[in-house]
Amino acid sequence: MRILVIGGGAIGSFLAARLTELGVSVVLAARPRTVEAAHRQNGLRLTEYSGEEKLLAVTVHPSVAAAFGKRDDFDLIILAVKSYHTETAGREVLEAGGAGVPLLTIQNGVGNEEALAGILPASPILAGVLTTPVEVLGPAAVKISRPSFKFGLAVGPGASDVVPVAALLTNAGFSVTAYEDYRSLKWSKLLMNMLANAQSAILGYAPAQIFADPRLGNLELRAWREALAVMRALGVKPVAVGGYPIPLAARLVQTLPLGLMRPIFARFIVGGRGEKMPSLYYDLHPRRRSHSEIDWLNGAVAREGERLGVATPVNAAFAHIMRALVRGREEPAAWAGQPEKLLAAAASSGTL
After folding, report:
1. What SS3 state is found at 271?
2. Taking a C-beta distance cutoff of 8 angstroms, is the pair 217, 210 a contact?
3. CA 152, 153, 156, 158: dihedral to nearest 10 degrees?
4. What are the structural domains, with CATH classification, of the chain?
5. pTM of the prediction?
6. What's 281's DSSP letter?
7. E strand spans, the chain
8. Which residue, among 192, 243, 7, 238, has the nearest Cα to 103 in the 3D structure?
9. Which region among 116-125, 173-182, 273-282, 328-337 has the lowest average model confidence (pLDDT)?
10. DSSP string of 25-41?
């Protein structure tokens, strides 16, 4: 199988290296600095959880067009870019002549599969979720933070089965679970990605700090309740992802007092992340980026809630503040370490 991986960040580089190690022909399309580093060291550097370092001879190109220019017979495209680059990447594939090639998206958030299907209607779209924590050590260098190799797969628009890709990933050492509904898979992963993410970015707090404050911890659980209400309105059921009992957690969050659930979620967050900062934090720190995935996470909950008539005041507040911070309408320093200000903003966006 001949594979093109688009996106040289943590997950894209990790998958490119792991599949190359398996003996699969892999080409990676990444940023110029990743290309330069890969050429300088003759491949991608992968550090296993054990500390063992490996150098994998992955071919890296600075663009999708360059990758197709060298080889146009790919059997699979794996998309591992941030969600705000989905449309750009999809159009680059189309313009490079990749229409019709099966595409597996392993991006966070919801809506990527539909966007890709609109751009590449001839391409079977597969939805994937990878729960392996991977850390970027530098350009073309990644480290496995925790040995959890679980992969979720589901057929998306235009696809008929996941068997060939599931077999490929199984051979690469992943424990693969197939799901019937890609929306259930991606919305359930969204629930995981939401936890202590936007608040961490806005306040500059580690996830453990957020759940140490009952008011902020309760705000996270209220955001979950809103997302679950939107999922019910969409007819999307929570499913277990990466070994995490999302359906059970969903039932308990909706039925038990927040004060009982908060310590349980706190243990989950601390055990899973500890002091590691989540993805949205890096949209603002150490410097502000020009884009954020907030619109594919809390923003998607708020957007679908508005469309369906489901109240989502907490998610709407998180999304509104993050947009203002990323777009420069407000400064991160104005919100950092200001939980009272955030709680007031969430309360003013609707009845909590």
Report:
1. helix
2. yes
3. 170
4. 2-180 (3.40.50.720), 188-348 (1.10.1040.10)
5. 0.94
6. G
7. 2-6, 25-29, 44-47, 53-56, 59-61, 76-79, 103-105, 125-130, 134-138, 141-144, 150-155, 175-179
8. 7
9. 273-282
10. EEEEE--HHHHHHHHHH
